């Protein structure tokens, strides 16, 4: 099996395992106790905090350990907002943040706050000026990921931090995807991450609150972790998290070069090996290990299943692989094709031959799924009526796009096709198809049922 | 070293270690993913949930795993209160709950709710009628621990659940101290626990919400653990928690008998070995492994330090061992002596000879601390004035009681002594001293500085 989903979670790093084992015997007791076992536990906890703080580039007393990266985000966002409640109740986030940030923003809105989403370009990156435009006198907090978890695009964190700093607004950086690679540059105020993304154990998140940043922890009082992370500290896991962060950082520079070359291979070769593919995300400013592409006329779940059967574990932002039946909010915000979406995120140490095998297997896997779905293989040329209606109501992605493509050749140049669909993915995928095909997307109109997506043939 | 602080946290059970090791390789991936590693993780998680649910006596879909027992309490209390917000905003707790429950209650009060604390008797037990009297038409939730964490007293949970059930009010049971021993009896509605109390790993709490109980999870939305415990599941630790719960349960009945005999030995012999000791907690309805006593004229921290030096790790509810400088709320609610407080909580498997060695060491340790503090060894007999003032302002527990005892013999029978103290512990310890000595505690009065505690000599 080749596990290519490191962005979801990495297998345990050998150093993490070793540290976990060692500290199970020394770190199980309550570190607030004065007796021998408690003192040992406290020493381990303190040493882990020092080590992790050094790798992050913060003071040890600015760092607390939470139970997950998600929890660090929830706590960090809520605490920073509450700490600056008197300033105002406005929050800025980018439109491609991790769901933990967006859900924190929703909870804040439900509680009466106001949220501004900063848009991204087609590569998935925000512009610092977007944050500048969103800042208001009542802005309590801004959030920006260090790099995107679905497409790997690196965000201009230092520049955005500068814009926020000039306005006196703290910036929280969700560094979940990048902290294993390098410290976050720039003058940020809060930082969050989760250890299992870099090969640390599950159950450990990190929350940094810089000295001087106003912060009011929410929820019931608890004395542990400076009052910011209630509950008995999971010291063996914390020790393993800190040790593995140091370990992956020692390998990071060299491994980044190697993985970047491997993902570059995928970026370059997939469009040549597989027809009708869009590689998404910034080609340059990106994480070393992530590459994401979408395949026209492909059902994401079927493709993942086929790749799994052939020994590859990848994930997808396609709607049909999620419980919500809507495409990933990241792909939507970027305005790129969502159907047949595949995210390959290589763990450190991925072998070159596994990537080559993936490239060998992928074309057949995509072709097989397309064949089952009856995807168009060549455009029809018969000239039919100048206006055509495709009724795809009740059909799920990628069927609406397949049905559009099948009849497209029947209308003459200048003619239009109205695709009726009640699948949320069509809103993204029909315009994306037009862009890939060089055809005109006219727009959408409400229909008796669902929505009509109007396309004009221009060539 | 003899570790006698199992009520704080138990060393990792061998079965937990084994399960943790085994599932580090199989359970690290995201259980929501469809690929092989994700499916394996999901299988482990489902099996752990089934096993733990069986041990608790609930349905698997009623149980979620949180990151700690404290987190389970915070989530359970907040969710149950929110779920019944329309009924009202009144919460009932006992006065001897774990701080996680009391802090949840404080947070609820800060948010506009009302809290009633049900008192306990001198043994630390609530009366079911106390809950009956506290119930109101707007009561949203009642909370009761299954057994007390500081003195081991077992609470009448089934009877209180019955009283609550009759009023249509859900009862949340904090089963942290007892779940390793046995399931919680009675018709409770919610239950919480933490795995590291029974020898499971740190980082795993349990929250059970019975079907039909209204529950509205608070905080940002997250799809994991039925929306009740955000963040990536810590599956290796969850597997270890479930496996060790089954393992300790298999040993529990036999081990309970053995530990009960050992703690009974301590209960019976400490008062004979050490003068001026009060053993606290219910002598019959109690956990097998916990025994707690307080020693007059003893500084708890000094005693713990001395016991640690001699190889015993115990904890204390004395004010001088806590950061808050107030005695444990449990001892205060019970109205028992807090100075020189020692809680012995034996882990499963404690050897008889370790307990015997503790009993051999304790008298010398107590005597040593008393000697350093200049504690009275025999009552003075000289008859002095009929009224005496002892100025203990600025002195910490146990000095005020020592100074009282030293001069007590100087006043004639019928005479009074006013002890001036600004130490919070005096409020508890001076009345307790009177009760132990068979003298009359008249009451307290505000003084120019601190408080005057008035004692009358009756014998």
Automatic annotation (TrEMBL), chains A, B:
Source organism's superkingdom? Bacteria
* One Pfam family matching this protein: TusA
Q: Which cofactor does it need?
A: pyridoxal 5'-phosphate
Q: List UniProt keywords, sorted A-Z.
A: Iron, Iron-sulfur, Metal-binding, Pyridoxal phosphate, Transferase
Chain ranges passing through the membrane: none
User: Is this entry keyworded Ion transport?
Assistant: no
UniProt KW Transferase keyword: yes
Reaction equation(s) it catalyzes: (sulfur carrier)-H + L-cysteine = (sulfur carrier)-SH + L-alanine
InterPro entries per record: Aminotrans_V_dom (IPR000192), Cysteine_dSase (IPR016454), PyrdxlP-dep_Trfase (IPR015424), PyrdxlP-dep_Trfase_major (IPR015421), PyrdxlP-dep_Trfase_small (IPR015422), TusA-like (IPR001455), TusA-like_sf (IPR036868)
Molecular function, one GO term: iron-sulfur cluster binding
Gene3D superfamilies to which the protein is assigned, alphabetical: Aspartate Aminotransferase, domain 1, TusA-like domain, Type I PLP-dependent aspartate aminotransferase-like (Major domain)
Residue ranges of domain UPF0033 in the record: 390-414
Q: Which PANTHER family match?
A: CYSTEINE DESULFURASE, CYSTEINE DESULFURYLASE FAMILY MEMBER
Q: Which family does it belong to?
A: Belongs to the class-V pyridoxal-phosphate-dependent aminotransferase family. NifS/IscS subfamily.
The molecule here is called: Cysteine desulfurase
What's the source species for this entry? Streptomyces fodineus
């Amino acid at each position: 099996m080749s596990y290519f989903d490191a962005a979801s979670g990495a297998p345990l790093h050998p150093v993490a395992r070793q540290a976990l084992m060692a500290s199970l015997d020394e770190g199980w007791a309550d570190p607030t106790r004065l007796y021998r076992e408690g003192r040992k536990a406290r020493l381990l906890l303190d040493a882990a905090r020092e080590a992790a703080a050094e790798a992050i580039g913060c003071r040890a007393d600015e760092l607390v350990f939470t139970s997950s990266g998600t929890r660090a985000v929830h706590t960090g966002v809520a605490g920073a907002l509450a700490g600056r409640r008197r300033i105002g109740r406005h929050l800025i986030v980018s439109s491609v943040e991790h769901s933990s940030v967006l859900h924190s923003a929703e909870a804040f809105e439900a509680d009466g706050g106001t949220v501004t989403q900063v848009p991204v370009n087609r590569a998935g990156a925000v512009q610092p000026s977007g944050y500048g435009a969103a800042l208001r006198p009542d802005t309590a907090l801004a959030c920006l990921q260090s790099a995107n978890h679905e497409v790997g695009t690196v965000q201009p964190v230092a520049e955005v931090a500068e814009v926020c700093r000039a306005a006196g607004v703290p910036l929280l950086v969700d560094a979940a995807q990048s902290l294993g690679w390098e410290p976050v540059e720039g003058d940020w105020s809060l930082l969050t991450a989760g250890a299992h993304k870099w090969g640390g154990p599950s159950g450990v998140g990190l929350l940094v609150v810089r000295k001087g940043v106003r912060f009011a922890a929410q929820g019931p009082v608890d004395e542990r972790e400076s009052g910011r992370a209630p509950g008995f500290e999971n010291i063996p896991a914390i020790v393993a998290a800190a040790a593995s962060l140091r370990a992956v950082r020692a390998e990071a520079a060299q491994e980044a070069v190697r993985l970047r070359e491997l993902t570059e291979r995928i970026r370059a070769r997939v469009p040549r090996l597989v027809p009708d593919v869009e590689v998404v995300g910034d080609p340059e400013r990106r994480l070393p290990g992530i590459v994401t592409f979408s395949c026209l006329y492909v059902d994401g779940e079927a493709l993942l299943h086929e790749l799994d059967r052939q020994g590859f574990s990848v994930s997808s932002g396609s709607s049909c692989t999620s419980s919500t039946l809507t495409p990933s909010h990241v792909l939507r915000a970027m305005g790129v094709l969502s159907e047949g979406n595949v995210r390959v995120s290589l763990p450190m140490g991925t072998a070159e031959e596994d990537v080559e095998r993936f490239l060998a297997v992928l074309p057949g896997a995509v072709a097989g799924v397309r064949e089952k779905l009856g995807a168009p293989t060549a455009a029809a040329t018969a000239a039919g009526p100048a206006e055509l209606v495709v009724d795809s109501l009740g059909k799920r992605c990628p069927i609406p796009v397949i049905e559009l493509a099948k009849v497209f050749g029947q209308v003459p140049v200048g003619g239009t096709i109205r695709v009726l669909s009640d699948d949320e993915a069509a809103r993204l995928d029909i315009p994306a198809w037009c862009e890939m095909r060089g055809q005109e997307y006219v727009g959408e109109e409400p229909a008796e049922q669902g929505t009509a997506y109007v396309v004009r043939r221009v060539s």
